[in-house]
Amino acid sequence: MNRATTLICRLYKSPFVRFAAVGAVATGINYGTYTLLILHFDDLWPEVAYIAAFCVSIICNFILSSYFTFSVDPTWSRAAKFLTAHLVNLANELLLLRLWLWIGVPKLYAPLCVFVIAFPINYLMVRLALRGRASRPTEDGLRSKEYDKHEQP
């Protein structure tokens, strides 16, 4: 393989890089929804638009995070843990949103500042929710199905 192909293969094997790719899709859905709501409803509080956008993006995020990022089967147990992790992150993000708005960042751009700060925290919490502490990646960077046995409901 040439160097570019080798680099792409290494990046694909990294759960953090896959998380970033899924995060970009979910963030795009989240920010797109938020922007539509803010632009079409002048009196809508930014926090309400942010929560609505979160609700729209969370389903796509869970499915992609399960299959693509962490290579685990989506179960109800994992969905509950994922949602719990994201609700904690949502609270963190709403506090950050309020902070950026208070500082004076326009409400259309404040979520972008939030996403940058919340991303690493979100990665750690979602990883713990979907993989748990006992998970071990295989040589190809993906999760072995044998570690999923203790996660089945």
- Topology as H/E string? HHHHH
Shape: globular
Radius of gyration: 17 Å
* Largest β sheet strand count, sense and barrel closure: none
- Identify low-pLDDT runs: 142-153
Distance between the termini: 42 Å
Report on this structure.
This protein is mostly helical and 153 residues long. Helix 2 packs antiparallel against helix 3 and helix 2 packs across helix 5. The chain starts with a helix and ends in a 22-residue tail after the last helix.
What does the secondary structure layout of this molecule look like, with pairings?
Elements: H1 3-13, H2 15-40, H3 46-69, H4 76-103, H5 110-131
Helix pairs in contact: 2-3, 2-5, 3-4, 4-5
List keywords for this structure.
0% strand
Describe this structure in a few short sentences.
The protein has 153 residues and is mostly helical. Helices cover 73% and strands 0% of the residues. The radius of gyration is 17 Å and the shape is globular.
